[in-house]
Amino acid sequence: MTFGRYCIAIGLTLGALGIAPHEIHAQERAADRRRSLSTTQETSDDPRRVPAPGGPKGPDGSIVLRGGRVFDGTGAPARAGTVVITRNRIVAVLPPGATDWPRDARVIDVTGKTVLPGLIDLHTHITYSDPPVSTTEDGNDADMTLRSLNRLRYFLESGITSVRDVASAGDIPFRLKAWSARNAIAAPRIFAAGQLITGTGGHGNEVRNFAESGPRPIRAASGPDDWRQAVREQFKVGADLIKIASHFTTEEARAAIEEAHALGLKVTCDCETFYIDRAIEAGVDMIEHPLPRTDEAIRAMVAKKVEADPTVYIYTLLFNKLGGGYFGSSSRRFQFSDSLNLDVMRRMHRAGVKMGVGTDLVLDWYQHMPWPYINELKYFMAIGYTPAEALVAATKTNAELLDMDDKLGTLVAGKLADVVVVNGRPDDHLDDLAKVELVIRDGHIVIDDGRIFVPRHVPRAAPPPYGIKR
Protein backbone atom coordinates (compact mmCIF):
# COMPACT_ATOMS: atom_id res chain seq x y z
CA MET A 1 0.00 0.00 0.00
CA THR A 2 1.33 3.41 -0.92
CA PHE A 3 1.72 6.07 1.79
CA GLY A 4 -1.10 8.10 0.25
CA ARG A 5 -3.50 5.15 0.27
CA TYR A 6 -2.42 4.34 3.83
CA CYS A 7 -3.35 7.87 4.94
CA ILE A 8 -6.69 7.61 3.16
CA ALA A 9 -7.39 4.26 4.85
CA ILE A 10 -6.56 5.70 8.26
CA GLY A 11 -8.83 8.66 7.54
CA LEU A 12 -11.71 6.38 6.54
CA THR A 13 -11.27 4.28 9.69
CA LEU A 14 -11.27 7.35 11.92
CA GLY A 15 -14.23 8.74 10.02
CA ALA A 16 -16.19 5.58 10.76
CA LEU A 17 -15.48 6.24 14.45
CA GLY A 18 -16.67 9.84 14.15
CA ILE A 19 -13.15 11.28 14.59
CA ALA A 20 -11.73 13.69 12.07
CA PRO A 21 -8.08 12.85 11.19
CA HIS A 22 -6.88 16.34 12.05
CA GLU A 23 -8.33 15.95 15.58
CA ILE A 24 -6.01 13.10 16.62
CA HIS A 25 -3.63 15.49 18.37
CA ALA A 26 -5.99 18.44 18.81
CA GLN A 27 -5.01 20.79 21.63
CA GLU A 28 -8.25 22.04 23.11
CA ARG A 29 -6.64 22.65 26.49
CA ALA A 30 -3.08 23.31 27.55
CA ALA A 31 -3.01 20.14 29.66
CA ASP A 32 -3.66 18.05 26.52
CA ARG A 33 0.09 18.22 25.85
CA ARG A 34 0.64 16.05 28.94
CA ARG A 35 -0.64 13.07 26.93
CA SER A 36 2.58 13.19 24.91
CA LEU A 37 4.97 13.43 27.86
CA SER A 38 7.20 10.53 28.80
CA THR A 39 6.32 8.82 32.06
CA THR A 40 10.00 8.28 32.88
CA GLN A 41 11.62 11.56 31.78
CA GLU A 42 11.87 14.23 34.48
CA THR A 43 10.62 17.68 33.52
CA SER A 44 11.03 21.22 34.78
CA ASP A 45 9.02 22.13 37.88
CA ASP A 46 6.76 24.52 35.99
CA PRO A 47 3.83 24.30 33.56
CA ARG A 48 6.20 24.23 30.56
CA ARG A 49 7.36 20.71 31.51
CA VAL A 50 10.60 20.92 29.58
CA PRO A 51 12.78 17.76 29.81
CA ALA A 52 15.19 18.09 32.72
CA PRO A 53 18.15 16.01 33.91
CA GLY A 54 17.47 13.50 36.66
CA GLY A 55 19.33 13.15 39.91
CA PRO A 56 18.96 14.56 43.43
CA LYS A 57 17.50 18.04 43.87
CA GLY A 58 17.23 20.32 46.85
CA PRO A 59 19.45 20.50 49.93
CA ASP A 60 21.17 17.48 51.44
CA GLY A 61 19.47 15.75 54.33
CA SER A 62 15.99 15.57 55.82
CA ILE A 63 13.73 17.86 57.85
CA VAL A 64 11.07 16.51 60.22
CA LEU A 65 8.21 18.74 61.41
CA ARG A 66 7.09 16.87 64.50
CA GLY A 67 4.09 17.16 66.79
CA GLY A 68 1.88 19.67 64.97
CA ARG A 69 -1.53 19.75 63.35
CA VAL A 70 -1.30 18.79 59.67
CA PHE A 71 -3.70 20.60 57.33
CA ASP A 72 -2.78 18.79 54.13
CA GLY A 73 -4.90 20.85 51.71
CA THR A 74 -6.75 17.86 50.28
CA GLY A 75 -10.03 18.85 51.94
CA ALA A 76 -9.56 16.47 54.87
CA PRO A 77 -9.73 18.02 58.36
CA ALA A 78 -6.51 18.87 60.14
CA ARG A 79 -5.04 16.02 62.13
CA ALA A 80 -2.11 15.37 64.45
CA GLY A 81 0.90 14.20 62.50
CA THR A 82 4.51 14.58 61.46
CA VAL A 83 5.73 15.75 58.05
CA VAL A 84 8.99 14.25 56.76
CA ILE A 85 10.94 16.03 54.01
CA THR A 86 14.00 14.65 52.26
CA ARG A 87 15.86 16.99 49.93
CA ASN A 88 13.07 18.83 48.03
CA ARG A 89 10.28 16.27 48.39
CA ILE A 90 7.68 15.35 50.98
CA VAL A 91 8.36 11.68 51.66
CA ALA A 92 5.77 10.95 54.36
CA VAL A 93 3.05 12.32 56.62
CA LEU A 94 3.30 10.10 59.68
CA PRO A 95 0.73 9.49 62.42
CA PRO A 96 1.47 10.69 65.97
CA GLY A 97 4.14 8.64 67.70
CA ALA A 98 5.74 7.31 64.51
CA THR A 99 9.47 7.93 64.16
CA ASP A 100 10.19 6.46 60.76
CA TRP A 101 12.62 9.07 59.44
CA PRO A 102 16.38 9.19 58.69
CA ARG A 103 18.56 9.08 61.80
CA ASP A 104 20.45 12.24 60.85
CA ALA A 105 17.31 14.29 60.08
CA ARG A 106 16.86 17.75 61.56
CA VAL A 107 13.81 17.44 63.83
CA ILE A 108 11.79 20.63 64.46
CA ASP A 109 9.17 20.59 67.21
CA VAL A 110 5.97 22.28 65.95
CA THR A 111 3.70 21.27 68.82
CA GLY A 112 0.60 23.45 68.99
CA LYS A 113 1.18 24.80 65.49
CA THR A 114 -0.35 24.05 62.10
CA VAL A 115 1.61 22.67 59.16
CA LEU A 116 0.05 23.40 55.78
CA PRO A 117 1.01 23.54 52.10
CA GLY A 118 2.71 26.68 50.83
CA LEU A 119 0.17 29.33 49.84
CA ILE A 120 -0.09 30.41 46.20
CA ASP A 121 -0.92 33.89 44.84
CA LEU A 122 -2.38 33.71 41.34
CA HIS A 123 -2.10 37.42 40.48
CA THR A 124 1.06 39.48 40.99
CA HIS A 125 3.05 42.12 39.10
CA ILE A 126 6.50 42.02 40.63
CA THR A 127 8.19 44.77 38.55
CA TYR A 128 5.48 47.42 38.90
CA SER A 129 6.63 50.70 40.41
CA ASP A 130 6.32 51.92 43.99
CA PRO A 131 5.37 55.56 44.53
CA PRO A 132 7.16 57.88 44.52
CA VAL A 133 9.43 56.67 41.74
CA SER A 134 11.32 58.63 39.13
CA THR A 135 10.94 58.05 35.41
CA THR A 136 14.55 56.85 35.38
CA GLU A 137 13.89 54.17 37.98
CA ASP A 138 10.62 53.11 36.42
CA GLY A 139 12.30 52.24 33.13
CA ASN A 140 15.57 50.94 34.55
CA ASP A 141 16.28 47.19 34.59
CA ALA A 142 18.39 47.32 37.74
CA ASP A 143 15.84 49.31 39.74
CA MET A 144 12.99 47.12 38.60
CA THR A 145 14.91 43.98 39.58
CA LEU A 146 15.74 45.30 43.04
CA ARG A 147 12.18 46.52 43.45
CA SER A 148 10.95 43.03 42.57
CA LEU A 149 13.27 41.39 45.10
CA ASN A 150 12.01 43.68 47.83
CA ARG A 151 8.39 42.97 46.89
CA LEU A 152 8.91 39.18 46.81
CA ARG A 153 10.18 39.19 50.39
CA TYR A 154 6.77 40.32 51.65
CA PHE A 155 5.06 37.42 49.92
CA LEU A 156 7.54 34.87 51.24
CA GLU A 157 7.21 36.16 54.82
CA SER A 158 3.44 35.77 54.43
CA GLY A 159 3.74 32.04 53.71
CA ILE A 160 3.30 32.41 49.95
CA THR A 161 5.73 29.98 48.33
CA SER A 162 4.51 30.46 44.73
CA VAL A 163 3.41 33.53 42.80
CA ARG A 164 1.90 33.66 39.35
CA ASP A 165 3.15 36.87 37.73
CA VAL A 166 0.65 38.03 35.12
CA ALA A 167 2.57 40.90 33.48
CA SER A 168 5.96 42.28 34.34
CA ALA A 169 8.69 44.03 32.42
CA GLY A 170 11.22 42.45 30.10
CA ASP A 171 13.23 39.42 31.13
CA ILE A 172 13.18 40.29 34.85
CA PRO A 173 10.55 37.79 36.11
CA PHE A 174 12.23 34.96 34.21
CA ARG A 175 15.68 35.73 35.60
CA LEU A 176 14.31 35.99 39.13
CA LYS A 177 12.45 32.71 38.56
CA ALA A 178 15.74 31.01 37.67
CA TRP A 179 17.57 32.48 40.67
CA SER A 180 14.77 31.45 43.03
CA ALA A 181 14.75 27.93 41.57
CA ARG A 182 18.39 27.44 42.51
CA ASN A 183 17.85 29.05 45.94
CA ALA A 184 20.20 31.92 45.15
CA ILE A 185 17.70 34.55 46.37
CA ALA A 186 15.02 34.61 49.06
CA ALA A 187 11.86 34.48 46.95
CA PRO A 188 8.82 32.35 46.21
CA ARG A 189 8.64 30.17 43.11
CA ILE A 190 7.77 32.41 40.17
CA PHE A 191 5.47 31.35 37.36
CA ALA A 192 5.52 34.17 34.82
CA ALA A 193 3.36 35.20 31.88
CA GLY A 194 5.84 37.70 30.53
CA GLN A 195 4.07 40.59 28.83
CA LEU A 196 0.33 41.17 28.88
CA ILE A 197 -1.05 40.93 25.33
CA THR A 198 -3.76 43.46 24.49
CA GLY A 199 -5.17 45.30 21.50
CA THR A 200 -3.60 48.60 20.54
CA GLY A 201 -5.00 51.11 23.04
CA GLY A 202 -6.41 48.28 25.19
CA HIS A 203 -5.99 47.65 28.91
CA GLY A 204 -2.46 48.61 29.97
CA ASN A 205 -1.74 50.21 26.58
CA GLU A 206 -3.64 53.39 27.30
CA VAL A 207 -2.13 56.87 27.16
CA ARG A 208 0.67 57.36 29.72
CA ASN A 209 0.07 54.03 31.46
CA PHE A 210 3.73 53.01 31.18
CA ALA A 211 6.94 54.73 30.16
CA GLU A 212 7.83 54.09 26.55
CA SER A 213 11.54 53.68 27.36
CA GLY A 214 13.03 50.52 28.82
CA PRO A 215 11.41 47.08 29.13
CA ARG A 216 7.64 47.17 29.24
CA PRO A 217 5.05 44.77 30.69
CA ILE A 218 2.64 45.27 27.77
CA ARG A 219 2.67 43.84 24.24
CA ALA A 220 0.11 45.58 22.03
CA ALA A 221 -1.04 43.44 19.10
CA SER A 222 -3.35 44.01 16.16
CA GLY A 223 -4.92 41.26 14.05
CA PRO A 224 -4.98 37.47 14.59
CA ASP A 225 -1.51 36.89 13.13
CA ASP A 226 0.07 39.49 15.41
CA TRP A 227 -1.73 38.05 18.45
CA ARG A 228 -0.38 34.62 17.57
CA GLN A 229 3.11 36.10 17.14
CA ALA A 230 2.85 37.82 20.52
CA VAL A 231 2.14 34.45 22.18
CA ARG A 232 5.17 32.92 20.49
CA GLU A 233 7.34 35.78 21.74
CA GLN A 234 6.29 35.15 25.35
CA PHE A 235 6.84 31.40 24.95
CA LYS A 236 10.31 32.02 23.54
CA VAL A 237 11.45 33.98 26.60
CA GLY A 238 10.04 31.40 29.04
CA ALA A 239 6.35 32.07 29.69
CA ASP A 240 4.55 29.61 32.00
CA LEU A 241 1.16 30.94 30.92
CA ILE A 242 -0.28 33.61 28.63
CA LYS A 243 -2.32 36.61 29.73
CA ILE A 244 -4.51 38.57 27.35
CA ALA A 245 -6.68 41.62 27.95
CA SER A 246 -9.51 43.46 26.29
CA HIS A 247 -9.87 44.83 23.83
CA PHE A 248 -9.76 42.15 21.13
CA THR A 249 -11.89 40.53 18.49
CA THR A 250 -13.01 36.93 18.90
CA GLU A 251 -10.66 35.99 16.05
CA GLU A 252 -7.69 37.66 17.74
CA ALA A 253 -8.39 35.92 21.06
CA ARG A 254 -8.90 32.58 19.32
CA ALA A 255 -5.57 32.86 17.47
CA ALA A 256 -3.72 33.58 20.72
CA ILE A 257 -5.48 30.85 22.69
CA GLU A 258 -5.02 28.18 20.00
CA GLU A 259 -1.32 29.00 19.80
CA ALA A 260 -0.88 28.94 23.57
CA HIS A 261 -2.71 25.63 23.94
CA ALA A 262 -0.63 24.10 21.17
CA LEU A 263 2.45 25.13 23.15
CA GLY A 264 1.01 23.62 26.35
CA LEU A 265 0.24 26.92 28.09
CA LYS A 266 -2.98 28.05 29.76
CA VAL A 267 -4.48 31.45 28.97
CA THR A 268 -6.04 33.88 31.41
CA CYS A 269 -7.91 37.05 30.49
CA ASP A 270 -8.37 40.49 32.06
CA CYS A 271 -11.67 41.31 30.39
CA GLU A 272 -15.21 42.49 31.05
CA THR A 273 -18.75 42.63 29.67
CA PHE A 274 -18.95 41.32 26.09
CA TYR A 275 -15.18 40.72 25.97
CA ILE A 276 -15.74 37.94 28.50
CA ASP A 277 -18.23 36.39 26.07
CA ARG A 278 -15.64 36.61 23.29
CA ALA A 279 -12.92 35.07 25.46
CA ILE A 280 -15.16 32.17 26.48
CA GLU A 281 -16.13 31.54 22.87
CA ALA A 282 -12.46 31.57 21.89
CA GLY A 283 -11.59 28.88 24.47
CA VAL A 284 -9.92 30.84 27.29
CA ASP A 285 -8.99 28.95 30.48
CA MET A 286 -9.54 31.64 33.12
CA ILE A 287 -11.05 35.10 33.68
CA GLU A 288 -9.32 37.53 36.04
CA HIS A 289 -11.10 40.00 38.34
CA PRO A 290 -14.75 40.45 39.38
CA LEU A 291 -15.50 42.69 36.39
CA PRO A 292 -19.08 42.86 35.01
CA ARG A 293 -20.53 39.80 33.30
CA THR A 294 -23.97 38.40 32.69
CA ASP A 295 -25.51 35.30 34.21
CA GLU A 296 -25.38 33.83 30.68
CA ALA A 297 -21.63 34.38 30.63
CA ILE A 298 -21.28 32.67 34.01
CA ARG A 299 -23.29 29.70 32.78
CA ALA A 300 -21.03 29.53 29.72
CA MET A 301 -17.98 29.58 32.03
CA VAL A 302 -19.36 26.55 33.86
CA ALA A 303 -20.24 24.72 30.64
CA LYS A 304 -16.76 25.27 29.17
CA LYS A 305 -14.94 24.82 32.52
CA VAL A 306 -13.56 28.36 32.45
CA GLU A 307 -11.99 29.16 35.82
CA ALA A 308 -11.89 32.43 37.76
CA ASP A 309 -9.42 34.43 39.82
CA PRO A 310 -11.73 36.98 41.49
CA THR A 311 -9.15 39.37 43.11
CA VAL A 312 -11.93 41.24 44.92
CA TYR A 313 -9.95 42.82 47.77
CA ILE A 314 -7.64 44.80 45.48
CA TYR A 315 -10.68 46.87 44.48
CA THR A 316 -11.49 47.53 48.14
CA LEU A 317 -7.99 48.98 48.38
CA LEU A 318 -8.46 50.93 45.16
CA PHE A 319 -11.81 52.40 46.21
CA ASN A 320 -10.30 53.46 49.54
CA LYS A 321 -6.90 54.69 48.40
CA LEU A 322 -7.48 56.13 44.94
CA GLY A 323 -10.82 57.76 45.57
CA GLY A 324 -13.04 55.28 43.82
CA GLY A 325 -11.79 54.15 40.45
CA TYR A 326 -9.47 54.02 37.45
CA PHE A 327 -9.79 57.68 36.55
CA GLY A 328 -9.02 58.46 32.92
CA SER A 329 -8.93 54.78 31.95
CA SER A 330 -10.61 53.86 28.68
CA SER A 331 -10.49 50.17 29.59
CA ARG A 332 -12.56 50.54 32.77
CA ARG A 333 -15.70 52.16 31.36
CA PHE A 334 -18.29 50.40 33.49
CA GLN A 335 -19.79 50.60 36.95
CA PHE A 336 -18.23 48.60 39.71
CA SER A 337 -18.05 48.74 43.50
CA ASP A 338 -17.36 46.45 46.45
CA SER A 339 -20.96 45.24 46.51
CA LEU A 340 -21.13 44.67 42.75
CA ASN A 341 -17.78 42.85 42.77
CA LEU A 342 -18.84 40.59 45.61
CA ASP A 343 -22.08 39.90 43.75
CA VAL A 344 -20.13 38.67 40.70
CA MET A 345 -18.07 36.41 42.94
CA ARG A 346 -21.18 35.10 44.70
CA ARG A 347 -22.98 34.36 41.41
CA MET A 348 -19.94 32.48 40.10
CA HIS A 349 -19.77 30.41 43.28
CA ARG A 350 -23.47 29.54 43.15
CA ALA A 351 -23.15 28.51 39.51
CA GLY A 352 -20.16 26.24 40.22
CA VAL A 353 -17.29 28.21 38.68
CA LYS A 354 -13.92 26.99 39.98
CA MET A 355 -12.23 29.91 41.74
CA GLY A 356 -8.72 30.56 43.01
CA VAL A 357 -6.98 33.21 45.11
CA GLY A 358 -4.94 36.18 43.87
CA THR A 359 -4.14 39.66 45.18
CA ASP A 360 -3.07 41.89 42.23
CA LEU A 361 -1.20 44.23 44.58
CA VAL A 362 0.03 47.24 42.58
CA LEU A 363 1.89 50.36 43.68
CA ASP A 364 3.21 49.90 47.25
CA TRP A 365 0.17 47.97 48.47
CA TYR A 366 2.21 44.78 48.95
CA GLN A 367 3.42 46.46 52.14
CA HIS A 368 0.03 45.61 53.67
CA MET A 369 0.81 41.89 53.39
CA PRO A 370 -0.32 39.43 54.69
CA TRP A 371 -3.65 41.21 55.22
CA PRO A 372 -4.64 41.62 51.54
CA TYR A 373 -4.26 37.87 51.08
CA ILE A 374 -6.13 37.09 54.29
CA ASN A 375 -8.87 39.58 53.40
CA GLU A 376 -9.25 38.00 49.95
CA LEU A 377 -9.86 34.69 51.73
CA LYS A 378 -12.44 36.43 53.92
CA TYR A 379 -14.34 37.40 50.79
CA PHE A 380 -14.47 33.68 50.00
CA MET A 381 -16.00 33.19 53.44
CA ALA A 382 -18.50 35.97 52.71
CA ILE A 383 -19.91 33.95 49.79
CA GLY A 384 -20.22 30.70 51.75
CA TYR A 385 -16.78 29.09 52.17
CA THR A 386 -15.58 27.88 55.55
CA PRO A 387 -12.06 28.96 56.62
CA ALA A 388 -10.81 25.47 55.78
CA GLU A 389 -12.42 25.60 52.32
CA ALA A 390 -10.83 28.99 51.69
CA LEU A 391 -7.43 27.51 52.59
CA VAL A 392 -8.03 24.66 50.15
CA ALA A 393 -8.71 27.28 47.47
CA ALA A 394 -5.41 28.98 48.38
CA THR A 395 -3.43 25.73 48.09
CA LYS A 396 -4.90 22.74 46.26
CA THR A 397 -7.25 24.66 43.96
CA ASN A 398 -4.65 27.31 43.17
CA ALA A 399 -2.18 24.58 42.21
CA GLU A 400 -4.77 23.09 39.88
CA LEU A 401 -5.46 26.46 38.26
CA LEU A 402 -1.72 26.98 37.89
CA ASP A 403 -1.46 23.57 36.16
CA MET A 404 0.92 22.43 38.90
CA ASP A 405 -1.32 20.15 40.96
CA ASP A 406 0.92 17.17 40.21
CA LYS A 407 3.71 18.87 42.16
CA LEU A 408 2.23 21.50 44.50
CA GLY A 409 -0.81 22.35 46.60
CA THR A 410 -1.10 19.46 49.07
CA LEU A 411 1.04 17.78 51.72
CA VAL A 412 1.20 14.39 50.05
CA ALA A 413 4.18 12.06 49.66
CA GLY A 414 5.95 12.75 46.37
CA LYS A 415 4.98 16.43 46.12
CA LEU A 416 7.55 19.22 46.15
CA ALA A 417 8.40 20.38 49.68
CA ASP A 418 6.69 23.78 49.88
CA VAL A 419 5.51 23.86 53.48
CA VAL A 420 4.41 26.54 55.96
CA VAL A 421 4.19 26.40 59.76
CA VAL A 422 1.72 28.79 61.41
CA ASN A 423 1.44 29.49 65.12
CA GLY A 424 -2.29 28.99 65.29
CA ARG A 425 -5.22 27.29 63.60
CA PRO A 426 -5.79 29.11 60.29
CA ASP A 427 -8.29 26.46 59.15
CA ASP A 428 -10.50 27.73 62.00
CA HIS A 429 -9.37 31.38 62.18
CA LEU A 430 -7.98 32.93 59.00
CA ASP A 431 -6.31 35.76 60.93
CA ASP A 432 -3.85 33.18 62.28
CA LEU A 433 -2.25 33.21 58.80
CA ALA A 434 -0.53 36.38 59.99
CA LYS A 435 1.51 34.21 62.40
CA VAL A 436 3.82 32.50 59.90
CA GLU A 437 6.89 31.16 61.71
CA LEU A 438 8.58 28.77 59.29
CA VAL A 439 8.52 28.52 55.49
CA ILE A 440 10.16 25.76 53.48
CA ARG A 441 10.38 26.26 49.73
CA ASP A 442 11.67 23.39 47.58
CA GLY A 443 13.12 21.77 50.68
CA HIS A 444 15.04 24.89 51.76
CA ILE A 445 14.20 26.75 54.97
CA VAL A 446 13.66 30.31 53.71
CA ILE A 447 11.73 31.82 56.65
CA ASP A 448 12.73 30.92 60.21
CA ASP A 449 11.13 32.47 63.28
CA GLY A 450 9.17 34.72 60.93
CA ARG A 451 12.29 36.21 59.29
CA ILE A 452 14.13 35.70 56.03
CA PHE A 453 16.69 32.98 56.60
CA VAL A 454 19.89 32.91 54.56
CA PRO A 455 22.39 30.27 55.71
CA ARG A 456 26.01 31.28 56.16
CA HIS A 457 28.03 30.50 53.05
CA VAL A 458 30.51 27.66 53.10
CA PRO A 459 33.84 28.98 51.75
CA ARG A 460 35.56 26.99 49.04
CA ALA A 461 39.07 25.74 49.70
CA ALA A 462 41.67 28.25 48.50
CA PRO A 463 45.42 27.82 47.97
CA PRO A 464 47.64 29.40 50.68
CA PRO A 465 49.63 32.60 49.99
CA TYR A 466 52.94 32.03 48.19
CA GLY A 467 55.81 31.09 50.52
CA ILE A 468 53.71 30.92 53.66
CA LYS A 469 53.20 27.61 55.41
CA ARG A 470 49.90 26.77 57.08
SSE topology:
Layout: H1 3-16, E1 62-70, E2 79-86, E3 89-94, E4 106-109, E5 114-117, E6 119-124, H2 135-138, H3 141-157, E7 160-165, H4 172-181, E8 189-192, E9 196-199, E10 218-221, H5 224-237, E11 242-245, H6 250-262, E12 267-270, H7 274-282, E13 286-288, H8 295-303, E14 307-309, H9 313-321, H10 338-351, H11 371-382, H12 387-401, E15 419-422, E16 436-441, E17 444-448, E18 451-452
Parallel strand pairs: 1-4, 1-5, 6-7, 7-8, 9-10, 9-11, 11-12, 12-13, 13-14
Antiparallel strand pairs: 1-2, 2-3, 5-15, 15-16, 16-17, 17-18
Helix pairs in contact: 5-6, 6-7, 11-12
Would you write up a description of this structure?
It is a single chain. With 470 residues, the chain is α/β, with parallel strands linked by helices. Among the domains are: 3-32, no CATH class; 121-417, TIM Barrel. The chain is built from 12 helices and 18 strands. It has helices at residues 3-16, 135-138, 141-157, 172-181, 224-237, 250-262, 274-282, 295-303, 313-321, 338-351, 371-382, 387-401; strands spanning 62-70, 79-86, 89-94, 106-109, 114-117, 119-124, 160-165, 189-192, 196-199, 218-221, 242-245, 267-270, 286-288, 307-309, 419-422, 436-441, 444-448, 451-452. Strands 1, 2, 3, 4, 5, 15, 16, 17 and 18 form a 9-stranded mixed β-sheet that branches. Helix 5 packs parallel to helix 6 (250-262), helix 6 (250-262) runs parallel beside helix 7 and helix 11 (371-382) packs across helix 12. It is globular and about 70 Å long.
